[in-house]
């Protein structure tokens, strides 16, 4: 796919899209989250790009919504759909549906919608969906204990770009490598030429290291799963609640997720925990061991009667001889026992293994007895190094093992989240269809539309109180009727049905058929008489309209208010003639139906929304327009009522004039 061929995608946007793993797939799926993850692309822009891709694929020029009022109704429709989405993703994705004149586009959406309408919007699924969001990138994790090394400048640049998590170092020879091995726990050498060389430390020659990121930087995958843990668990719950086959084994996913901490470290391994705690507690354990030994000795000394020979006592007094010799002679056994207790304490408090315990013994070395007992700091440091290295190696092994498991789950995890989000889109459509008793309309080549029991969700009364409307039009038609009879609401319903139908969506009617309109022109009622300039502008607009393409739906509400009634009737008659010639489908709401019909040079069809009578000062109306029927206006009805109630020549004469 040539990205720049997509309407609205310039060179800069195309470059940004090329950053994505698979821009074509993202565009094909309409995956607004993936598109918006390219740098500098907002969600609004992602919607435009996704729509552009659809238009490009279907050769659609996307000009169905031809007027402000038509666009306004489309926004209302999108609002109704979005109200039924749980996730922000679904809300944005719903915006990619737009009314099209392309048969293939409409069909594409209809097959998606037909499946969607089968989906049961189970509250448990909706609840689970509330935790799902598109997968997030965790950002670059810096790994300090490992580095990459190469002697090749090109390879160096390649490594820096591929593995931003690791430092890349230059190593020309074994000496350089030894140097690096002293600074890093692990050195990964990218050059084959170093294979077989003997270097002290953890130095691995891995020419394929850049191609195996799960092994080279397992932290990357771990961070990805740690960052997205909640959304992955929520997506898994969505699949289970909706009873949809997941793209991976959910238990394996949950198990893998339970092994990684929020910061990407592996958890739940006893050996790692033992080593990490031992490193942390080493100083405290040595201190306590010292106390244990000294307490033991102190106690022993306290309980002992020491007999000292005169000669010894003299040398103690005269030569300042140390008391140690005395200690050694009198308490050698107790001293050994004290050391043993101290060593045992270190070994058991830190849960050391036999190898580590061997070093720990030397923390309290054999030798001439002293009091108080003191540890050997150098050995403590050695033990610390030993334990830290074992801990880091254990962590590295755990990370590598877990990353291996996760690498198999990586693509399915993406699909898992994406499928859950797409399910939300389907459920929004399903809920819309259920809430407004929708059906999928049919398209055919016949001119016009036919709506059976249509009920607009956009009325100012609750949907339950909306009275069903039947209406069919196949040419240029006038719609007459009493004030507040529902003429504007009927135009809204027709526009709504046409817009939804051409989006490929279900429509709020028991049945609907229509022609695939090239354009939908809907002109709302203008607010009062226009001045000369505005009138001229409006006339120009209609001039352009009647010169436009075939196959249009034109809905106009009380155009007569733009100027004085006599002139209006002539102008509307002229517009209707032109539209009739073009085989357009038009409904003009007007109170001047009689005058327009007289001014027109063809038999204009006039339909009417008829009041069935007046009840307690309120009009009773049949909301479905009657075909070929000029409805009585409200004044006519009232005169008729008075004439009936009161009789008399005045009312009868008045009635005659209608
Ligand atoms: N199908 C319907 N079901 C229930 N109520 C409706 C229906 N159609 C219209 N109404 C009610 O009637 C009111 C008037 O409707 P609308 O504005 O469409 O009439 P109108 O014939 O265009 O009026 P006007 O001649 O004053 O322009 C609406 O605000 C709505 O409350």
UniProtKB/TrEMBL annotation:
Cofactor: a divalent metal cation
Domain of life: Archaea
Domain DNA mismatch repair proteins mutS family: 474-652
Residues binding ATP: 481-488
TM stretches of this protein: none
Pfam families on file: MutS_V
MF term (GO), any: ATP binding
InterPro entries in alphabetical order: DNA-bd_MutS2_arc (IPR012401), DNA_mismatch_repair_MutS_C (IPR000432), MutS (IPR045076), P-loop_NTPase (IPR027417)
Keywords: ATP-binding, DNA-binding, Endonuclease, Hydrolase, Nuclease, Nucleotide-binding
The protein's role, per its UniProt record: Has ATPase and non-specific DNA-binding activities.
UniProt record similarity statement: Belongs to the DNA mismatch repair MutS family. Archaeal Muts2 subfamily.
Protein's name in the database: DNA-binding protein MutS2
Native species: Halopenitus salinus
